[in-house]
Amino acid sequence: MGLLSRTLWPLRQSAIKTKFHMSTAAGVATSPAQATSHPRTSPPSPSPNTLNPLSKTMPPGFKASVAHLPTFPLPPTITSSASDHALGNALVDAWRRDGIIQIAMDSTQRQLWADAKAASRAFFGRPHAEKAACVDSQSYAGYIASGEEITDGIVDYSEIFTITKDLGVEDPRVRAGWPGHGPCPWPDAGMKGVMKRFEGRMGEEGEKLLTLAELGLGVPEGALTGYTRDGWHHTRVLRFPPRNATNGKGKKGRGIGSHTDYGLLVIAAQDEVGGLFIRRPNQDEKFANWEKSAAGLNEDDDSWVYVPPVDGVHTVILGDMMQYLTRNYLTATPHKVGLNKRERFAIAYFHEPSFQAVLKPLEGGCGGMAQQSADIEGVHYGTHITNMFMRNYPDRITTRRLVAENRYSLLKRPELRTMCATTA
Ligand SMILES: [Fe+2]
């Protein structure tokens, strides 16, 4: 483990606590670093549905404690100011403590979320044949029916429209057959416009959060954000059916099984219905999803935390690559979704490294891609995300074509393992 990991990070951790406690003790939310609610999750409750009003929306049939999270507003721009450092420290502290943070939406983001939610409702309300036509044989973008996705061998009840990098067939990467590279099969121009605006703004938020995380971790500028040039960002527009109105293909009450996500950050918006559960970081819980799938891990035990819907916030959890880069200082957040009494809508935006990125753990004094350790092979993000798509969608036309044309073998080629895209 590098110098930074041995010394600076533990020192920074004690500094975080001092700053964060000072700011909350003052009780006046005048700084961006100050949260707008109590900064702790509530302790596990033996009867959460009766003792904690935040648990009123918890899906039936689940045992979990209930998160009561601080909400952080983000400044318009991030510099290296003292307040930005304090905010970065507070975010890292909150991720290490709770596994999830809440970010306040501004007025533009509230409108974008309202528009995206309306577009989502309209799309999922279409006849099945129209939705099912939204697939592409080269990209994993488009429609995924309830019961099509597989997590840990069990189908998920989520109904999804996935948005990956929308590349025309003339793009050199598509022409060369790079796995997962292709057009997004939009149902209409209206949904495309709404979702692209939503995703664009989420991307700005993702870059801000990574910059703040760099400040909070005490790593050089670019140690995280350097990986997101031409990032393989993608979005999942999600609908969950009511628990008593499923097609019976999956497991009762299970919307999506336990798993971790693959990249750096997952920024999500959820409606008022409720269904998200996460696990807090736990030193005794070891997993490395880039080596062995963590899907299904501890899915049915009672140490989950329910994340109740809060109006006007995004939730942000961490992905596998953040865990890998920080050598488990920040860990990917295991999460799952339960089905509720009513249908539920949510959108998850994934802020990712470049498909070509080969990530290596941060070292003291040499964080980031510029000074990667030559003796560490690293994790190729493009292979990591392709493995996920193939595992989750084994019967999709995209997987069948990928296998039939031996596209997976391209992932070993040098031009798919550079930091920069071949096209701007
Ligand atoms: Fe996920």
TrEMBL record:
Residues 26-57 are annotated as: Disordered. PROSITE patterns: FE2OG_OXY. InterPro entries: DIOX_N, IPNS-like_FE2OG_OXY, IPNS-like_sf, Iron_ascorbate_oxido_reductase, Oxoglu/Fe-dep_dioxygenase_dom. This is Fe2OG dioxygenase domain-containing protein. The keyword Protease does not apply. It comes from the Eukaryota. One of its GO terms (biological process) is small molecule biosynthetic process. It holds the Pfam family DIOX_N. Keywords: Iron, Metal-binding, Oxidoreductase. Belongs to the iron/ascorbate-dependent oxidoreductase family. Residues 31-40 have a biased composition (Polar residues). The lineage of its organism: Eukaryota, Fungi, Dikarya, Ascomycota, Pezizomycotina. GO terms for molecular function: metal ion binding; oxidoreductase activity. Residues 231-353 form the Fe2OG dioxygenase domain.
